Amino acid sequence: MARIDIDDVVVTYGGRPVIDGQSMTIPDGCFFTILGPSGCGKTTFLRLIAGFLAPARGRVAFAGRDVTRLPAHRRDCGMVFQDYALFPDRSVFENVAYGLRARHVPESDIRRRVGACLERVELAGFADRLPAALSGGQRQRVALARALVIEPLVLLLDEPLSALDARLAAGMQSFVRDIQRDYGVTTVFVTHDQRMALTMSDRVALLRAGGVEQIASPREIYHRPRSTYAADFLGAANLLAVDPDGIRGEVAQCRLSGARLAAHANGCRPGDAVRLCIREEEARILAPGAGDQGGDNRLAATVTRLTFLGEATRVELRLQGGAALRLIQPNGFGATAPEPGSAVTVEISPGCCLVREV
Ligand SMILES: Nc1ncnc2c1ncn2[C@@H]1O[C@H](COP(=O)(O)OP(=O)(O)OP(=O)(O)O)[C@@H](O)[C@H]1O
Ligand SMILES: [Mg+2]
Known about the structure:
Layout (H helix, E strand, L loop, with lengths): L3 E10 L2 E11 L4 E5 L6 H9 L6 E6 L2 E2 L10 E4 L11 H11 L4 H14 L15 H13 L5 E5 L7 H18 L2 E6 L2 H7 L2 E6 L2 E6 L1 H6 L4 H6 L3 E5 L1 E6 L2 E6 L2 E6 L9 E6 L3 E3 L12 E11 L3 E8 L4 E7 L12 E6 L4 E4 L2
Parallel strand pairs: 3-8, 3-9, 6-7, 7-8
Antiparallel strand pairs: 1-2, 1-4, 4-5, 9-10, 11-15, 12-13, 13-14, 15-21, 16-20, 17-18, 17-20, 18-19
The structure holds adenosine-5'-triphosphate (ATP) and magnesium ion.
GO molecular function: ATP binding; ATP hydrolysis activity; transmembrane transporter activity
InterPro entries: AAA+_ATPase, ABC_SmlMolc_Importer, ABC_transporter-like_ATP-bd, ABC_transporter-like_CS, Mo/tungstate-bd_C_term_dom, P-loop_NTPase, Transp-assoc_OB_typ2
Keywords: ATP-binding, Nucleotide-binding, Plasmid, Transport
C-alpha cells in the first residue's frame, strides 16, 4: 500500500508535450479513477506511474519515496492491461505465477499464493487451462490474479472492463471493487466511462487534453462540476444561459425565462461567464394545478417530446423564453407522462448549480 504523488510532471512524445506540468496525489488505499475522452492522456499517466515511460520533468513518488528513475520491474506495480496481455502458451497457473518466478519466490510459496489468488478470483478449477480456453470475463480475472499475486504496492488497471459485454462488465465492477477492498491496495483505474467512474471510485480525476480538470469524490464532481466541460462529461446536464442577479454566500439568485430561480453558486463570482447546470433529475413536472401560484424555481414550459426509457421517461420541454430543457421522470406507481404539446409547470431543485463556462 502506498500513497502516489505525481508532481509537476511533463511527458513528451517525439518532442511534443502530452502532459504539461500536471500534479495529482492518490491517497493510500484509494480506488482512484482517471477519467476522460479518448486521447486525453489516461494511459500516459498510467505508464508514467508504472515506470514504462520517464517524464521530461517532474517527480513520481510511492509512499514518499522518489521512484522517478526506478525501472518498471522494480516499482512493485501490478498492472492489468486493456487487452489483458496473457501469455497464450502458458497455463492459467503459470500466467499467475509469472511475477513470483521473476522474483525467485520458492516453489512451495508459489503454489500456495497462486492457489489462494485463483480461489479469490473464483478460478480455482482452471489452473491447467490455456487462456484460449477461457471466456473474456475469466481471462480478465486471470489478469487480475496475476497483478495481485505479487502483493503490489500499487494496482494499475487500464480500461480492464471495456472488452466485456455490458452485463458482465457490471458484475465485474463490484467484483473488482470487493477485491480491491480486501487487499486494501492503492488502485489507479482508467476508464472513459463516466458511469463506471461514478459507481466504482473513491476519487475521480477528470482529464482534459493532458491536463487535470478536476479531482473530487464522485458526488462532488457530479453535483459541483468545476466547468461546463466537467458538467457535460459526467452525466446528462442541461447547461442553460442565465443571468445571475446576485450571489450571496453559496446561493445565486438567477433569472431564467422570466422566473426567479435560486441555485448553488458553486464557487462562481459576479461577472464570471457562467451557465446554469440542471441535471435531468433536478427538474420535475408539477401535478396540474400545483404550480398555478407561481413562485421561485417554477417555470412555465411546453412539452415537445417524450422518450420511453423503460424505468423512466425522458421529457423534452421548451421554456417560455425559448430555451430547451430535458428531464427524467421515473415510471411506476401510476405515473403518467404529459402529452406532447401540453403546457406544464416545471420545478427546478435549488440544488442545481452555476458552472464556469470553460
Ligand atoms: N508512443 C506514442 N507516440 C506518440 N504519441 C503518442 C504515443 N502514445 C500516445 N500518444 C499520443 O498521446 C496522447 C495521449 O495518449 P493516451 O494513450 O495517453 O490517451 P488515452 O487517454 O489513454 O486514450 P484512449 O482512451 O484512446 O486509450 C494522444 O494524443 C496519443 O495520440
Ligand atoms: Mg488508453
